[in-house]
Amino acid sequence: MRIGVEQLVRALGGWQATAVPLVDALEGALREAVLDGRLAVGSALPAERRLADGLGVSRGTVVAALTRLRDTGWVRTRHGSASTVQLPPSSAERFAPPSADGSAGSIDLRRAVPAAPRADYLAATARAARRAGPALAQGGHSGAGLPELREAIAGRYTREGLPTRAEQILVTSGARAALALLAARLRPRVAAVENPTYPRAAAVLRGAGARLSGLRVTTEGWDEDQLHAAFAAARGGLAYLVPDFQNPTGALMDARTRQAVAASAAEHGVTVVADETLRDLHLSGPAPLPPRIPRAVLVGSASKTVWAGVRVGWIRSPGTGLIGELLHHPLCEPLSAAPMEQLVAVELLAALEPLLDRRRAELRVQRDHLAGRLADDARWRFTVPEGGLVLWLRLHGVRADTVTARAGAAGLHLAPGPAFAVDGALTHYLRVPYTPPVATLDRIAGILDEACSPPAR
C-alpha cells in the first residue's frame, strides 16, 4: 500500500514542534506513527524528494532520517522500489514508547504511559476478528457493553472478593469517559478531589461545572482533617479519589482511611468515585491490597495495565440503579466503546495475568533502579511507592519549574508539581515516571543531577 505525501504529513502531526534536531525529530515521529498505527506496517513511503517537499525540509534531512530507520530495522528498501515501513523484532516487547525511552532523541515523561504489548495485543485482535460476525451484524452500539465483556469484568471483581454481577457494570471508552459520564449525570456543584490530582480528571470535573475542593495527600497518605472538610464542602456532590498508588504521589490508602472516606461520604451525601486504573500495578510483594472503599463507584480501564490505545474503560456501581440512569443519559452512547474494541478487551482480559506478571516484574526493576540512583541526595526526598508508575520528588532549594526548564533544554521533559495541583501550588514537587528502561533511567538521573545543581559561576 503506497501512502501519499499529504496522508503522511497528517500521520506525523506536529513533529517539528520540538527542540531536537530535525533529523532526530523526523526519525522519532516516523517510528511513533508506525507504533501507534497511524502508519500501517508495509506502507510504501513517497520518494525522498517528494517527501522532503511535502514536509518542508531538505532532502538531506529525509535521507539521514530514513538511513537511521533502515539501520535499525524500521524501514526496508529494495533496489528499484519504494521504501516500506516495518516493525523490527526489537519493538515486539517494550514498556515505554519511543517518546519516553530516549530512542526518539528526547525523553518525554509528561505522560506516564506504557507502549502496547505488541504480541499480546495482535494475538487478541486476531482472535477478536475471527469471531466478530455477530457484533458486526448489530447497529454498532452495545448499550451498557457487550455481555461477555461485562461478565469478564464482573468476574474479576468477584474473584478479588467483591461480588459483582454483570448488571453492575457499564462499559465506556476509557476511565476519563467514565468520569465524564458520571459527572454529567450527578452534576456536582462541588467535587472533592485530592491535591495533587490527575490533571485530566480535574479538567473533566471543571468542564462539568464543578468547583474543586482539594484535600491534601502526600507520599505518606491522606490528610483526614482536609478530607472531612472537602467532603463537607462537596455535600450532595461527588468525590474523585485514586486510593491505589495515587497519581502522582504513589500513595496507597490504608484500610482505616478508606473507612473514614466511607463514613464522611455517608454523612455528607457524597458519591465517591474511586479511580482504580493503577490498582493492578502492585509491585511490593504478594500482600493483598486493602479492601475497597465501601459503597464507592469504581472506575477502571486497560490504559495503564495494557495500553492507552485500548479505548475501553468501565464503571462498577454498588447497585444497578445508577447503571440504569447512566444508560438513559444522552452522553452514554457517545462515550461508549466501539464493539470491536470491546471484543479485543475480552480477549486481553482472558489472558491478562501473564501480561501483568511480566509488566510488574519489569516495573519493579525500573522503580528500584531509579530510586537507587536518586537515593541519599540532599537536593530532594521521596518515598519509594508500593506500586504505580512514578516517583514524586520534593525538591529542596530549587523550584520545579526551574528544574523542568533546565531538564527540557537537555532533552528531558517532565511535569512539575503545579500541573497536578488544584490550587496552582506544589511548586517544589516533580513527578518522575520510572517507565523507561534502565539505560534511559540512568540518563534521566544524570539530567536531573545537572538540572538541580547550581549554575556554574
TrEMBL record:
Start and end residues of each stretch annotated as Disordered: 80-103
- The Polar residues compositionally biased stretches are 80-89
Recorded hits in SMART domains, A to Z, give: HTH_GNTR (SM00345)
The superkingdom listed in its UniProt entry is: Bacteria
> What InterPro entries would the database entry show?
Aminotransferase_I/II_large, HTH_trans_reg/aminotransferase, PyrdxlP-dep_Trfase, PyrdxlP-dep_Trfase_major, Tscrpt_reg_HTH_GntR, WH-like_DNA-bd_sf, WH_DNA-bd_sf
Q: Which family does it belong to?
A: In the C-terminal section; belongs to the class-I pyridoxal-phosphate-dependent aminotransferase family.
Q: What is this protein called?
A: DNA-binding transcriptional regulator
What species does this protein belong to?
Kitasatospora indigofera
